[in-house]
Design goal:
CATH topology of the largest domain in chain A: Rossmann fold
Helix content of chain A: 40-55%
Strand order of the largest sheet of chain A: 2-1-4-5
CATH architecture of the largest domain in chain A: 3-Layer(aba) Sandwich
Number of strands of chain A: 10
Distance between the termini of chain A: 31 Å
Oligomer: homohexamer
Amino acid sequence: MRLLVVNVNTTESMTKSIGEQAAAVASPGTEIVALTPDFGPESCEGNYESYLAAIAVMEKVRAYPEPFDAVIQAGYGEHGREGLQELLDVPVVDITEAAASTAQFLGHKYSVVTTLDRAVPLIEDRLKLAGLTDRLASVRASGLGVLDLERDPDAAVAAIVEQAAAAVEQDHAEVICLGCGGMAGLTEQVVARTGVPVVDGVAAAVTIAESLVRLGLKTSKVRTYAPPRPKQFKAWPPAN
Amino acid sequence: MRLLVVNVNTTESMTKSIGEQAAAVASPGTEIVALTPDFGPESCEGNYESYLAAIAVMEKVRAYPEPFDAVIQAGYGEHGREGLQELLDVPVVDITEAAASTAQFLGHKYSVVTTLDRAVPLIEDRLKLAGLTDRLASVRASGLGVLDLERDPDAAVAAIVEQAAAAVEQDHAEVICLGCGGMAGLTEQVVARTGVPVVDGVAAAVTIAESLVRLGLKTSKVRTYAPPRPKQFKAWPPAN
Amino acid sequence: MRLLVVNVNTTESMTKSIGEQAAAVASPGTEIVALTPDFGPESCEGNYESYLAAIAVMEKVRAYPEPFDAVIQAGYGEHGREGLQELLDVPVVDITEAAASTAQFLGHKYSVVTTLDRAVPLIEDRLKLAGLTDRLASVRASGLGVLDLERDPDAAVAAIVEQAAAAVEQDHAEVICLGCGGMAGLTEQVVARTGVPVVDGVAAAVTIAESLVRLGLKTSKVRTYAPPRPKQFKAWPPAN
Amino acid sequence: MRLLVVNVNTTESMTKSIGEQAAAVASPGTEIVALTPDFGPESCEGNYESYLAAIAVMEKVRAYPEPFDAVIQAGYGEHGREGLQELLDVPVVDITEAAASTAQFLGHKYSVVTTLDRAVPLIEDRLKLAGLTDRLASVRASGLGVLDLERDPDAAVAAIVEQAAAAVEQDHAEVICLGCGGMAGLTEQVVARTGVPVVDGVAAAVTIAESLVRLGLKTSKVRTYAPPRPKQFKAWPPAN
Amino acid sequence: MRLLVVNVNTTESMTKSIGEQAAAVASPGTEIVALTPDFGPESCEGNYESYLAAIAVMEKVRAYPEPFDAVIQAGYGEHGREGLQELLDVPVVDITEAAASTAQFLGHKYSVVTTLDRAVPLIEDRLKLAGLTDRLASVRASGLGVLDLERDPDAAVAAIVEQAAAAVEQDHAEVICLGCGGMAGLTEQVVARTGVPVVDGVAAAVTIAESLVRLGLKTSKVRTYAPPRPKQFKAWPPAN
Amino acid sequence: MRLLVVNVNTTESMTKSIGEQAAAVASPGTEIVALTPDFGPESCEGNYESYLAAIAVMEKVRAYPEPFDAVIQAGYGEHGREGLQELLDVPVVDITEAAASTAQFLGHKYSVVTTLDRAVPLIEDRLKLAGLTDRLASVRASGLGVLDLERDPDAAVAAIVEQAAAAVEQDHAEVICLGCGGMAGLTEQVVARTGVPVVDGVAAAVTIAESLVRLGLKTSKVRTYAPPRPKQFKAWPPAN
């Protein structure tokens, strides 16, 4: 099967990293196609960028010329999943929700550790809409921007590990979700410090997408995610 | 003061209608500027269209060349308000939330009557994120598309009145919010049939925006709606 | 239009102050009539006093001899709004709910800072009944009594500013509501310290009441706030 | 021990009936003192009347000249319990909460059947503040006024039994609370029709009050229900 | 009347202690029969043990040869109450729920103080299923095992008192429930330190069970707690 | 990898059927071992039976002599998952939760269709504890017992299809979970009637268990699911 794993920002190195994470856990026979949007911000760290990325991801997926079996939206706490679900019959898996769903099988409560403090409300809102907050202990921020994860990995590790430990010790989290597409490499260190299972959203999403495909399950089309009605669009998609 | 009232779709006649509704309730001294996005769908009836409209609204507002005091996003159950709040210091008022907030001052529970059934979950999700569902009795759909409201007003009236009456009689709503930018003219008929107050989102939003401006209140910038961080955007905004 | 702004306690100086706050934000053409109950406590700092004040406010409004367009109940976290809504057709606006509704347009979460710790549960309960707690970060108390605000304003400012800052820094509030009818003068200091918008309940209530009147909206009479049924009252209203 | 059972309205025959219900279940050695407020409405069927009754009940209890061990507020869905708790050290038991607490020991979900439809939101709000709605299946109204229960008992029985049956069959209630101080005599008929346990609030409250007294438990005074602070009251209590 | 008070573990000394607590508050004419399961763990400190105890308690009660009027399950945060309710017509009272229900009559919020930290989620889950978490301030653990309460009572007192004080001061609890069958003797010390009412679950359960019996109320049999359907059991009950 | 799939009842034919369902979706290289408890009821249709089954499942898994990688508890709405999680390091997947988690990736709301009406509250409670009720539209019962599914498959199909259709049309479910271990064969008919995705719990659980194993994730041991403390057990496990 072929899974499209779509980065939400336009930083190619991050797409590459996400694609490698996905490929590392994919089953034999699963082809991972990592895509970068054609337009939008170099990183998503707020609502404006996230809304723009949502559209850029949708357009990228719509333009993909080959058949595929599922799509993974590889941004943490981002907008847009519902739009992709309307456009496609195949399953769409958001990594925020994939990580939380997976975490709930492993411990009584889970926390998310993300980068910037301003991303916390976005993640909380995504999880609220997804109905996944009852067992959410906390969303904590390390205070680092998305691209800092690539620029200064050591500081990133230290700051994230500290927040993960606080989530376990103060908020009673029993599982940690790493709340950023670029955090996957940090899993080992967080496990070592906290002793709790650490879920990477991209990896979780790959297994969930594969599972849905294997079970023959597709997006429900009876109401919320019915295909868009035929209509006129003005000046869209963009010419550039 | 100057209020930007931004239609979410690209149908100019609807922009005109929304602008007239807004002007009809604006205080003396308030200038209403009704804007139509430069790109996007002719109507918003689902998530894909709504996400696209969110971006189109933001770009339109960003490009507006004159000073203004507040922005009203004149689409019911649409995405994007949080993005506008990041981009602007002035208040941003979503008509879905404006109607609900207003309704809560008038009765113990309120319902929303909207057009298509598929819009119901979008409205529910918007109200959930806004923290306005505790006193929500129901969101009901008349089964008509947005543009049907202009094409066959008589059928629209009949269908909406029927759902409003059901909301009052079966769901115990004590106030009705008309859940569509183009429904404003129907208020009188719904009041006549149900005997309950009927809130039009555009009108409610105008008074709330004016109030926030008069009180000197602006969007909080300390966390969720802080301005976007400086960064590179690829191929955006679109050239067309 | 004429707005009745009813103090909940019998301290005339506080009524005067409330009336001035209201007048300061009222539109041209709005007449503010500040009323003091004929009986009841000199300040409301608990349930017994608040229940008594609720009745005293209702009797005062019932006895008002001239027409009026809306009523503002100018006590924070007090009982009684639902009773006024039964007695009147015109809108009734509680300042606790007015402040919270207004705050929700400005930030992702809001906190209330009030006077005595024992008032916190009353405010929480009022907001719970009003369906306005989903985005409530916290209710914090400065530890000062209502009348201390008049007696020692400097200490009041310091204590309130401290709690407001804690609400922003520890509870992630993005907006502060000043939770006491007599706190209005402190807005400036709290803004200076925290950098977040500060909402005064009386001012917010005036703009909301004016808006409802302008929109021609009145209290729903179909169920919860239907007029009292005709019946015998024993020894009421009191002779004194 | 001595229990004050306070009617919320000024209809002496209803006080007598409530007192008899209470005495019928009281333990040997428990003295039931049934009190009627000195002022207020002949029945409580809405917020205005309920707020007035709240104060009338408090004044009656304050004026009671002998020692007592607990107070039962014998009105369904009425205001005021929190005020009594401030005024007294001894336990205060509201019959709405007593019935619901008792019902939760008997079945997975419970419903309340009350008189007028307009009382439904009052009861819902009382149960919401009491934290007793998670297992509430529904509050249903028979459409009869409080005094109809005395005037036309046969019709009252029929209407209440019908709603109780609907609560069990449609709302999945497994226990019924009779939501009116005057409904106690109807228990037998409702049991016969529905086959589920039926809880009478007055009876439940008597056993709970007795239990609290026997366990030596009193109202907590550390915060919400601390005694009122010493202060001036204007023209209160009333002279009549 | 005869009440069965069933310990959840197989430690006879704890059964004796529980029986004495129960007898100390039982009404004249109430016979307390304290039972120890025939199999299972010496203490319940986790889910495996609690599930096993649930079955052991049920089998012990099923085998009891004499008539009885109600059953008290005397373990804090344990599984099994719903099973007993299916097996019996008489009321079944769980001490976790009895304590919480009682606490809610005494203060605005309550906390539970228990032994091991790992028991906290069990208690939280029990209260969640019972619909008793809206007014729950916190569940706190003293860090001591169940049997430590017998082995080193002084340390137990100190640790529990410390957590109770923290619940009042930090979590705003106004009532404390002692969350362990063996904690009853500590009530006095906790009251002395915190000044709030302290509820012992066994004592509360005895009065509730007696009340239900006096009121003639039994477990509802219409749905959730209907008797088990007739069927084959393999190798059960155990031969030993 | 080896997955233990444990039936909750002692009916071997149902174990066989469950094992076949599991094997049908297992990846190449996954060995499915279907186990039947050594004691307990022939079917689980209530709390008593479910509690007994919980223990029987745990004992069966404890006694399994070979290594294994994950356990699937193949009963719908049953007790016991938390106990298994304490006993094991490997992941434990409950089919109720597996189905719900999977459904949430496919539609905005989901419903569960089960057999007996009395099972509905058990399923609701399981989903409540699992934090999976926010997007639950309804739990509906076909009115058939567990073993009827084997005895009269045609009637089972008809009754289940009818409830599934009602869930979609009346409750706005967009996905159906078949809420019984023995319902798997009915998927096709329900899909044909409703047009929505249908999730079988056993199949969903197999893919989730495989995913957790592939990702190297195990049950968190820091708090709720820490191993049982060493202690004495009386007369357990049973000799028979």
